[in-house]
Every structure is written in C-alpha cells, then in structure tokens.
Design a protein that fits this description.
This protein has nine helices and nine strands. The protein is an alpha+beta fold. Strands 4, 5, 6, 7, 8 and 9 form a six-stranded mixed β-sheet that branches. The protein has a three-stranded antiparallel β-sheet with strand order 2-1-3. Strand 1 and strand 2 form a beta hairpin. The chain is globular.
Length: 258
C-alpha cells in the first residue's frame, strides 16, 4: 500500500479515536461506518481480511462490496467523519452515524442503537411513559430485539419476526420458558416456544425468505404466551426495559435465567 495512503505517525497521534465512512465511488453510497485509530480506515478500505472486527461482526457483506469496487477498477472512498473523540464517547458517535445511513453492510447496529436510536415522537412517549418491565423476572426468558417491526400491535407479525432466525445456542435456547419481542427498549410480545430448529426452508415452510442460507441459525415454532404471562411482561401497550441486565446494546439477544 502506498505511503500516500497512510497517516504519518505524528498525524495518528493527533487524530486519536475517529469514526469513518467507506463510500462506493460508483454511486456515492456510504456502505460502512466504523471506528478506529491510526491507519485502520485504510486497512478497511483496502479490504484486508485480517483486520480485527468486533466480536459479533462478520466481514462478508463489506468485503463483497469492496471486491466489487476493485473489480470495477476503482478504489473505495473514505471520510473521517469525526476525530479526537474521547474513549467515553466513541461508541455513541459511531452509533449516531450508523443510524443516519440505512442499508449499511454493518451486521450490527451501533452501540445502544436499539435503545437510543431513531424514534418518532410516539415511540419516545411510549419509551418513557409505559409501565416498567419486572426487574427480576421469575421465568427463564430470552429477550430478542426485533426493530424491523412495522406494526407493533400485530401479534402475528411480531411472532414471525421474533421466531426466525437467530445465531444462538439451540441447547441454551431450549431452556427458555418464554421468548419476548423487544422494539426500541419496549417489550411488545411474549411467546412460548415449543420447538427450536435449524433455520431451513424445510423446517419453516411458511417463512418466504427461509432459503437455507442461514441454516447455522435457529428459530422456533410456538404460540402466544398465556394471558397472565402476556399481561405480566407486555401489558396493553408494552413495558419498558429499564434494567441494564436486560437491555440490548449491540447483541440482539438477552438471556435471563437460562
């Protein structure tokens, strides 16, 4: 890699933490947002596969985009969006920029994006005025973040989103009594799983997008939780998760007592 495409040491020291965007020169689209120090942005723009990622990230979509750009005879463009960021703020800055660019190849949202990310005024009112979720639930639970939900009172839609499909241990999942669907920090559905299975089209024929490419993940078939359980964990309009032990940050899954 040319020395013109690296920061000198004295510049690295001045930059400290920074957040950057990778941009596709073919259409000007930002396709990845990341945080780094020193010359990390150049390593990512070059598509170096040995660059350390966050534990729950996968390189595939980003590297595919970079390879396509290079195959077109072009270079990935990049912008240092903000630099000299204190350690205490780096995750929040990255999350805010991720939220501003939908369709990224980032596998996970930014830090606390599910809890503090973009919301309309009704979602904000609900988030801070709904009843609180129990602080010490008595059941074995899995709380799953399903932020793609469009209609939060459509129980069938909630069920289909929360049951398919997740990168979790099947053995651990089978210990749970109930699976709870969470949207923007609010529990909106409660379901009793009856069977956990690999995410294949054979196991989930009613899921149109189950094509076998995510067979390493699992989903479940089940039914709505009994009324008393639904009332306990969901209520009429949902219940706010305020306990840090149960709130989602980057990982969409939270286990409780299992």
């Amino acid at each position: 890699m040319s020395s013109n495409h690296r920061f000198p040491e004295e510049v690295c020291q001045k930059l400290s933490n920074y957040v950057y965007r990778l941009i596709d020169p073919r259409n000007g689209e930002t396709f990845y947002v990341g945080k780094g120090r020193n010359n990390r942005v150049f390593d990512h723009a070059a598509g170096l596969s040995d660059v350390a990622e966050d534990d729950d990230q996968r390189l595939g979509p980003k590297l595919d985009r970079i390879r396509a750009i290079k195959n077109a005879g072009l270079d990935v463009l990049h912008v240092i969006h903000r630099h000299e960021i204190p350690d205490s703020a780096i995750f929040e800055v990255e999350a805010a920029i991720i939220d501003a660019y939908p369709g990224l190849t980032n596998i996970q949202g930014g830090h606390a994006s599910s809890d503090k990310g973009p919301m309309n005024h009704l979602e904000l009112i609900d988030k801070y005025s709904l009843p609180e979720f129990p602080s010490n639930p008595e059941h074995r639970l899995i709380l799953i973040n399903v932020n793609k939900l469009e209609e939060r009172f459509d129980r069938r839609a909630i069920y289909n989103l929360v049951r398919y499909c997740w990168r979790i241990s099947k053995l651990r999942a089978e210990k749970a009594e109930y699976v709870l669907a969470v949207v923007r920090g609010v529990v909106v559905g409660a379901f009793r799983p009856q069977r956990w299975m690999a995410a294949t089209s054979e196991n989930f024929p009613d899921i149109a997008y189950a094509d076998g490419t995510e067979a390493h993940r699992v989903g479940f078939i089940g039914q709505e939780a009994p009324p008393e359980i639904w009332d306990l964990y969901v209520g009429d309009r949902g219940k706010r998760v305020t306990d840090d032990r149960l709130r989602h940050v980057q990982n969409p899954i939270r286990f409780w007592n299992c």
